[in-house]
Amino acid sequence: MTRGQATTGSISRVGRQAETDGALSSPKQQAAADSIAKTKQRSTEIGRATSASKQVTPPSVAEAKRPTETDRAIPAPKQETAGSVSEKLLAKRRNRVQITGVQPEIEGGRYPIKRIVDDVVGITADIVVDGHNALAAVLRYKEETQSEWSETPMEHDINDRWQAQLRVAQLGRWQYTVEAWIDDFASWQRDLGKRVNAAQDVAVELLIGLNLVKQAAKRASTADLDAFSRCIEIIGNKQNVAEAIRLSLSDELADLMRHHPDREHAVRYKEILQIIVDPKQALFSAWYEVFPRSCSPHHGAHGNFNDLIGQLPYIADMGFDVLYLPPIHPIGTTHRKGKNNNSICEPSDVGSPWAIGTAEGGHTAIHPQLGTLADFRKLVAQAKVFGISVALDLAFQCSPDHPYVKEHPEWFRMRPDSTIQYAENPPKKYQDIYPLEFQSQAWEALWEELRRVVMYWIDQGVRIFRVDNPHTKDFSFWEWLIESVKKEAPDTIFLAEAFTRPKLMSQLAKLGFTQSYTYFAWRNSKRELEDYLTTLTTTDLKEYFRPNFWPNTPDILNDYLQVGGPPAFKVRLVLAATLSSSYGIYGPPFELCDGLPVEIGSEEYMNSEKYEIRSWNLNEPHSLKHYIAQVNKIRRENVVLQSNDNLEFYPVDNENIICYGKHSDDFLEILIVTVNLDPNWVQSGWIKLPIDEFDLPSDRPFQVHDLLDNRRYLWNGSRNFVQLKPHTAPAHIFRLRRYQRSERDFDYYF
To answer: What is the pLDDT of residues 440-458, one digit of tens each?
Structure first.
């Protein structure tokens, strides 16, 4: 007699429910009745055999069969030391569950992914087990400072892929991992259902399930003990097998058991993965760069913070929410550069703000002509009233006059002639700037000082930093600095200004930079834009690299803007503002369409503000300020433009027209953007939209509403015609509106 039969002998008789059920209405009900009847008969047989089974005893060790001569001829296996093989085999035996392919994950968990507060993060994993056992899995997660982990069940998708979601509800660094185990109860319940449907005897199976429920009851909380007691009583009731089967297969019991699983041999994923959770502005922001010294209302005068405060309404009216200031510190005089980067400096030349430091102070000092610390705090406070955050330039370099040079020469690289190494990019030389030596013998004191600089400005109300040339500084420094700063101020944003090789830019993002400048300024053709955006939004880059698109900067005036006139500026604005959820412009040159280079073939501005004070007429009739304001209004009012998700490009039979869209996950909000990339000539073409994917009927029109000029058009089917005139309407931003009903000859679109 088998062990299972002997155990079942405790059942003396089964209930008679199946005998009195009467006619059955379906084959499944008939199978269940047959199963109950067979279970009754089997239970009776087991009961009769119980006494006999008790007389069976296993042979003693002495009575065990002795090895034959042949057996003795086979050499015994080599004996391992105690605990070696057995421990290894025990670990392998318990490691039946395998967890791989957890996503998102960056380089095996070496670097965190990035999200914004209140994001829902989807986590998936491949989880397999040998045999046919059912599995259970949970997603474990917590904010880094919490001591206890939270869990949410994972659900099986397809092909051993499991998934779950978590909402990151607060700023900071979060952790997550996956744990899985063999679910004996789920395996038993699944197989019991099959046996019942096949009208098999399930007496033994009910006892197995009863034992599983009893074990779970020992793990249960006090609140669930009554529920377990009721389940144990019903499943163990031999007089009502039908009810025992019903409860055993119920969702009620499954839910109860799911809350008290046997996880003694659970397997946890090998890595604890991390998420950096940033404020919303880390993903969705519109930047405006301005030189405060050029903000004076008086021609040629040196502007200050109070002058800039006077321009806040102008900046706010255009819809920008980040005001970025180039370095505001004292500017060195030694080797000061003249106008247009001339090596000869006149006494009246103001120098480059990136040559930081004089005897009066360095990175925590303010240029005296800009104002005082109190004036700066006033600027930060007034900007906040307009919904604008002030961003500072973080340029970790010094002029030869910086106090660090005299106080800490060990923080710089010394040349063989005992002079300090100046910045250079051969053959170019920048004698007005001394780079810091991040791997000097005194590196620790240097790093701590630079962290102090950042924390000083955070104390003044600054939470956003544009970091100058981070790719020329030590990787390990940035990783340490950003992580340590965000532990104290998790809402801090760091924008990496690194126009360098793609993998180097990617590495800086992995190390913690919140946003990154990109190659957008040099992606002008349709093919270039589609390829670049596809890379940014569909590869692993989307997990940690947040692009910030800038059509121009004080260093970059590309050919397209130089020769395209106002239409080119409009085109690049719409592309930047709708392709990327974060973008910026350097103004006022951008809205005033300043496209004059210092010389043909150069990307430097003529009379660049990097080296001189400029006076701007913000009321120029050709200014794009109203066009910019409308684009930013569209961004604020349409959520799909506030992330880089669900970007798709659509075919157009004209290479001078690009068409793309962004949509919500449920397709209830759909925006279609068409742009004429030719700033000189009218371009037209037929675009093709996936109306089946949009769930639009092919036999009814739908409306597209141009949010730029408020015009509306009726389109039919997947192919529709567009014509774009560069000097009047070089772009459309269409909101797709569905046909709703017709009533008294009026059509409604929403």
So the answer is: 999 999 999 999 999 999 9
